């Protein structure tokens, strides 16, 4: 494998380029017309414009991406996350073009991407499941009858896709029909498939996931858990490894189930098995993500294992050269997704120009970002600016370092989730580990957010002042002689 085309953009493209370069592998970036000035385009060895800003005409254009790979002489494609990363047709098309797809087979992607099919495999593998429909449901009355049978509250989920789309929580029978109609309509619009399934809704759950690696030689290992319970609109904002509530016995059980599931579906590459955990620490299979996760850096920091490097090695048919007993957590890691979103306005996207952009730096501070000062945050794509990732010798140290780093992260021109991150991570229920996926619903208050924002703004102001002082010291006027 001598050259990889990265079928993605922004921070994840930069992340893949970094590891590939360290491995001595050439890189090809693709970019839309809106992304021409992005840092990852300069960081790659080559860059090819593949179309207009709209994703459907660029980053989702399978034929054009493969054409670009062949033009550049790349022999492999890394899909990153999002866009085509969980599209089985893309995986198959890459292989049909004589290229290597850095990820699982199209068959596995499709199988585990269909939530109903994934549930059947989980059942065969003996992985615990929340009570739910065994097949796709489109008939409202059939779905309602099942909901009555298992009891409310229930959750309606799109059979295809994810990211919170086509998902509705129904607590009262009288609301079921209208919520079912909304869920199926949203699923149809988002994924082209209106089928849903109905599950018992777990109150006050935690979202715990297991990172796995599996090769083509029958080896599979768990790289421990991540907790991803702080979410808005069913999408993660803060992640950590390890979880504050998972002990060694539970960790081994969850990991063993995840590895067994991977073996049942003949998985290869990096993947994530997601669980939902109730208040009694019973866990149930949620879904499997057949790609690199956004939050993979926290696993890398506590295991010292480069997941992108192992994706590449597995795609090159290499064997995993370590065993389960060798995987141990060293310290604690936290990640905050820094979105260009306004937490004062229901986390709606905030577009505009980055008038100032200066991430924090220092020991055990990692920033995976895709932007720089002067760039516009476009309306066409996910509004994530960066991921702020922190390591500490223990959880308390990691929390303290994260709060300090948030205060020293300067962004002007767009609203961000930095103030929300400070509010959440400094909250009592986060510190004691009792938070759930309902954190925003239960604890998020604008008045408290303003206080966190004022403290963070003071720290950012000191950065700006220091930057100004340095610029004054280095300024040298040009004096022209008459």
Describe, in plain words, how this protein is organized in 3D:
With 482 residues, the protein is an alpha+beta fold. It folds into 3 domains: 3-102, Rossmann fold, CATH 3.40.50.20; 131-200, Dna Ligase, domain 1, CATH 3.30.1490.20; 206-463, D-amino Acid Aminotransferase, Chain A, domain 1. It is 37% helix and 24% strand. The protein is built from 16 helices and 22 strands. It has helices at 10-22, 39-43, 62-72, 88-96, 106-113, 115-125, 140-150, 176-191, 248-264, 296-303, 307-315, 395-407, 418-425, 428-431, 439-443, 446-474; strands at residues 3-6, 26-32, 46-51, 76-78, 100-101, 154-158, 168-170, 196-200, 206-214, 220-232, 235-241, 269-277, 283-289, 332-339, 341-342, 348-349, 352-353, 356-358, 365-369, 376-377, 384-392, 410-412. It has an 8-stranded antiparallel sheet, with helices on both faces. A hairpin with a 5-residue loop joins strand 12 and strand 13 (283-289). Helix 6 crosses helix 9 (248-264). The protein is globular and about 60 Å long. Mean pLDDT is 93; it is low at 471-482.
